[in-house]
Amino acid sequence: MLAQISASAVNGIDAYLVEVEVDISPAIPSFTIVGLPDAAVRESIERVRAAIKNCGLEFPSRRITINLAPADVRKEGPSFDLPIAVGILAATGQVDMNFLEDCIIIGELSLDGAVRSVSGVLPIALTARDMKVKRMIVPAHNVKEAAIVAEVEVYPVNTLTEVVQLLNEPGHMLPAIFDMAEFQALDEPVYDVDFADVKGQAMVKRALEIAAAGGHNALMVGPPGSGKTMLARRMPTILPPLNMEEALEVTKLYSVCGLLSANEALITKRAFRSPHHTISTAGLTGGGTYPRPGEVSLAHHGVLFLDELPEFKRDVLEVMRQPIEDGRVTIARAQASLTYPAAFMLMAAMNPCPCGYYNDHVKACTCTPHMIHKYLQRISGPLLDRIDIHVEVPRLKQDELMSKTPGESSANIRERVRRAREVQQGRFSGSKAFCNAQMTSRQMKVHCKLDSDAEAMLKQAIEHLRLSARAFDRILKMSRTIADLDGAETIRIEHLAEAVQYRCLDRKYWG
Fold this sequence. Notes:
It is a single chain. The chain has 511 residues and is an alpha/beta fold. Helices cover 38% and strands 17% of the residues.
């Protein structure tokens, strides 16, 4: 007796089909799984046996052989429990095979027959759509993320008994439907923090508005207690909501990592990830025997905040160079080489010296020049070159600190940012870029045209600040963003002048 059940597995953030072939033959009772299963898949033998018996179904006392094809690709995780169990029931004639045509089944089984949630359901649903698969049977916990893909019928199940009933009586259950209005209703995410809470720091707020409008990286330098972390934590509140394409990319990552809740179909808030400075290279960029996404990928289309930047290990910071530049990270291991998206905004904060009070107008610095130089050298020039905006965050004055007047709200800033992003979406329509910071050199030649005055000023800035070619590009991209906020078609001298001032720390601290 032979049965074939379609399942699926995830490789990176993409899925591929797996055929679960079940053969039951009259021989000494045994249960064997072949096709490069890992330990979790091999252990499914006991889960499947107990689940079938505890649901009042017949488990055959014969030789059972399970093949997971393709046999040359390693299979991981417990998501093959349910298709293996259904395959055994189909091979013994306990369920009807008609509904199983063009159907993918995934799910983990508990010993009592309950179907538990699994990771990576959204990538599997998208692959099912691309492969023209008609329907899916998934754990009820994962139904919302699977139902996003409207082209595939999604049937949620809670127990193995429900699966048997669905296969034998297909008409008694209707497929789940994703309500698109649910996503559109979350177009304005609610946040617990707001820029109105921040007192003073008008110049810093302006710099962060530019960063949000163009997707630029930013570094804040200032004494302890000046509000660097407070400002950074409010960055997501001024970023525009994720569009559908961005939301799907982010949700795929979180689905693979098993970070979606039962009530969460799509991630609609931009991520804010703030790893501790003791994080390892693998934790930041991803890794493991079978590479998993790291913090740079979990911050995709969101904000990665590195507080106390010089306290991070040098090698940890240096591995961010390629993800910052390319918007993706490739992790190569002996078992696999995978590429994950990592188009994040880098926000960083640091003190100007070890004691934190260099150039402070109230408290004197106790550091020697050698100590300051050694402290700043923890951040390499190539990494600093990849940060578009460097802005000083000074200590608040007494009247600013005591003021009861609220600052400008995040909603007002976000509206300006949204208008600038809409201009950029029209500009980059049909390309992989979402914002000015992601412009290629070819796109810059078209969209970053300077008037004669601005061009003359840029030549002086290159000589005066000793800018690298990369810093030159980033100034042009920032100028384009400032012009977008101003509603200007051409980059004028005032736009360029504002962009140049955000690179002055290159010379002031590191020059």
